[in-house]
Design brief:
The chain is α/β, with parallel strands linked by helices. Helices cover 31% and strands 22% of the residues.
Length: 343
């Protein structure tokens, strides 16, 4: 039986009905449009989807870092019961970067080019932990070693342009860890890194969860990374969560047609490229979303089951199995519509 609401007990982070729009000359871009997700203490939570689906905007909205022309127009965000959406900017600043940290994409563009990486980490320690300069520098060296930067005593004096992409990413992680956060948001942390460095960064995130019980939101478009790292995962499409469950269930039996399409399009060793099944059609324009389900124009299941309702009403994200939520008319009733699949 479908259950329309989340069990919201025992979550470190609880996001409800989050909407973030960008008001442009071309129209209103509904980048995040009614996102519900929740993260448990000490887990790695994957947020996966195609580029442009709203993953990064969701993360920035949680931290209230949306800039003009963007605006958070609705939604509630709770962190350990604290209503982040109600905090003053001063209180949000005290929490942001200390209890919740974020590793941003493109680390070289995020680090200040006129200060050494070490100085930027030390500054965070002096601001949030009120450390004296010498103590902050010693702690910075320790953090550099923690994230696997060799010759830490020398590298703390390196400017961002003197670092490789992998080293810069490690400095970003050191910055994020400086305050011992309870929640770390890692936005595509392995993008543009070679395979060896990717594995080292992922190992580091795993170690953080194990040693510090840090919860991690891992944002990626790479389902292979999700399979390797995540405990639970939410799949985003065109600004909305379409499926959320534990990682075993997602790969064992994906239930939303979009998730199924993603799985079918994954390259698998030993399977030729000719056998990959691309999802037909294109991602909808977020300024002019289709009526009904936003995936309906590309959905093979809609055609197979001859579902008219898909082009008329948008389905809710509902629980259809224990800890398995899906936004699809295949599994829920409405008026004269009866779900064709009984789970």
């Amino acid at each position: 039986m479908a259950i329309s609401s989340f069990d919201r007990s025992d979550y470190l982070l609880d996001v409800r009905g989050l909407q973030t729009y960008f008001f442009t000359e071309q129209g209103v871009v509904k980048a995040v449009d009614g996102v519900d997700l929740n993260v448990r203490s000490g887990e790695i939570f994957g947020l996966v989807g195609e580029s442009g689906c709203g993953k990064t905007v969701t993360a920035l909205s949680i931290l209230r870092l949306i800039e003009e022309p963007g605006k958070i127009v609705a939604g509630e965000v709770y962190f350990e019961g604290i209503a982040l959406h109600e905090l003053t900017e001063e209180k949000m600043n005290n929490l942001r970067g200390k209890r919740i940290s974020m590793i941003f994409q493109q680390p070289l563009s995020r680090l200040n080019p006129v200060f050494t990486g070490g100085a930027q980490v030390a500054e965070v320690l002096m601001i949030h932990w009120k450390m004296e300069k010498e103590e902050a520098w010693q702690r910075t060296i320790e953090l550099y070693k923690t994230v696997g930067i060799s010759d830490a005593e020398e590298k703390i004096n390196a400017y961002p342009h003197e670092l490789s992409v992998g080293q810069a990413q490690r400095v970003m992680i050191a910055l994020a860890l400086a305050t011992v956060p309870e929640l770390l948001i890692a936005d595509e942390p392995t993008t543009a890194l070679d395979v060896t460095i990717q594995a080292q960064i992922l190992d580091l995130l795993r170690e953080l969860r194990t040693s510090r019980n840090t919860s991690v939101i891992l944002i990626t478009h790479d389902l292979g990374v999700i399979a390797e790292m995540a405990d639970r995962v939410a799949v985003m499409y065109a600004g909305a969560i379409v499926e959320q469950t534990n990682v075993v269930s997602l790969f064992d039996k994906p239930m939303h047609p979009y998730t199924t399409g993603l799985m079918a399009s994954m390259p698998i060793p030993g399977r030729s490229a000719e056998r990959l099944n691309a999802i037909p059609g294109n991602v909808p324009n977020l300024i002019n979303l289709p009526a009904g389900c936003r995936f309906a124009p590309r959905c093979r299941s809609r055609v197979e089951y001859e579902l008219q309702i898909c082009t008329e009403y948008e389905p809710d994200l509902i629980q259809i199995k224990p800890d398995h939520y899906v936004r699809c008319w295949l599994y829920q009733d409405k008026d004269d519509h009866r779900a064709p699949i009984d789970v």
